[in-house]
Amino acid sequence: MLCFVSLLNTVSFDWIETLSADLARFYAAEIVSALHFMHEKKIAHRDLKPDNILLDKKYHAKVVSISLICSLTFIMIAFRLTLVTVNNSLKKTKTLKRKPSMKATRETLSLTTLMKEEASNLEAPLLEPPCTWHRRCFQTM
Amino acid sequence: MLSDNVSSPASDLWALGCIIYQCRVGEVPFRGQFDYEVFKKISDRELTIPNELEPECVDIIDHLLQPDPKLRLGAGPPGSENDFEALKNHAFFKGINFRTLHQTAPPVPAERYSVYFNKK
What we know:
Chain A has 5 helices and 3 strands. Chain A is mainly alpha-helical. In chain A, a hairpin with a 5-residue loop joins strand 2 and strand 3.
């Protein structure tokens, strides 16, 4: 689902080089309100540039941080990979042992459930798409 | 930020000034072949502003591209002369209601954007 366009693209490729005065004012105001919200929460963006301003379907601007999303995604992928390998190794140990003692199975089971719980806890805030996150920012303002 | 290498919320406002300049002029405000040239241009405040730009736009760019982060518009503590309210009340944002901003339709010529959004 491609529903975001960077402000940079519109400025440099399709737009007639610059934005009209009204549009520039509108997007500047949207960025200002986003910045106001962030700075009130003691957050500095530190990487504000046209690449990081996305436009949604209704042409509203969203301030995001692409590099942050990328790094978070990489962390999540790495975490999932380790989870999968650990799960696989646990399964292997389970299948290798013909008659596992009750204690061992309980331990392994609790470990897997614990890790799954941890993963589900982590997934919720990290994998939320930035669009809804920012929409919420605008709604609260 | 160049001199002491500390980034703060005020550097976001500098970036905002750059974005406004880039949107209106179509070029990066300080351009140089090497970083050194760019730094020199910033510290000398070498900024080319086209004549056809509106005075309030020039004014807000001038206030946001202020080298001293403490004097930059919007960077001051709440209640001071250059806090966010001063930035929002700037003449450049005349006619914009920040409360209903997310409900207002952007003044976009729709046919330009259809290129991006109608493809699925």
